[in-house]
Specification:
With about 150 residues, the protein is mostly beta strands. About 15% of the residues lie in helices and about 40% in strands. Strands 1-2-3 form a 3-stranded antiparallel β-sheet, with helices on one face. A 3-stranded antiparallel β-sheet has the order 4-5-6.
């Protein structure tokens, strides 16, 4: 298996049989719990062409191309600080700081806060955007107090 970019910047897969597949997309099987493992490369029609057990199994060039494509596809800002919430009931508007800047979102229901492995949290906004809290214990005291009201 070999990966490259075509003249339009699209990802191209050259499989072990020598067949060229243009416009392929890498997809993580477990983007939050095991982002470096279980990568599927699917063709433009959505059918899996190659399964990769671990990014570590790839040569440096292929790994770099895949990671670059996955970064462009994955978007889960990390919540770093809660400034304020509009109310302690739901729905409520949260004013937060993320690794990508300040923003606000609406939390529809308390069920939209999910616990992940290792104590991490995934908070889904009313518009479906997921905010990740890698370790709630590392948030400042004010942020932890606000968050605890919803857990």
């Amino acid at each position: 298996m070999k990966l490259e970019r075509d003249a339009f910047g699209r990802l191209v897969l050259l499989d072990d049989q020598g067949q060229r597949h243009e416009g392929v997309t890498p997809v993580r099987a477990f983007p939050l719990s095991a982002p470096e493992q279980g990568i599927s490369i699917v063709g433009p029609e959505g059918r899996e062409l190659v399964w990769i057990d671990s990014l570590a199994d790839l040569d440096a060039d292929a790994r770099e191309l895949l990671e670059e494509s996955l970064r462009a596809r994955d978007f889960a800002p990390e919540l770093r600080q809660l400034h304020r919430v509009s109310s302690f009931g739901v729905p409520s508007t949260w004013h937060v700081r993320t690794d990508r800047g300040d923003t606000r979102f609406v939390l529809k229901a308390e069920e939209d806060i999910r616990r992940l492995d290792n104590g991490a949290l995934l908070i889904t906004s009313a518009h479906g955007l997921a905010f990740r809290v890698a370790d709630p214990r590392l948030l400042d005291r004010h942020s932890r107090k606000l968050l605890e009201r919803f857990l």
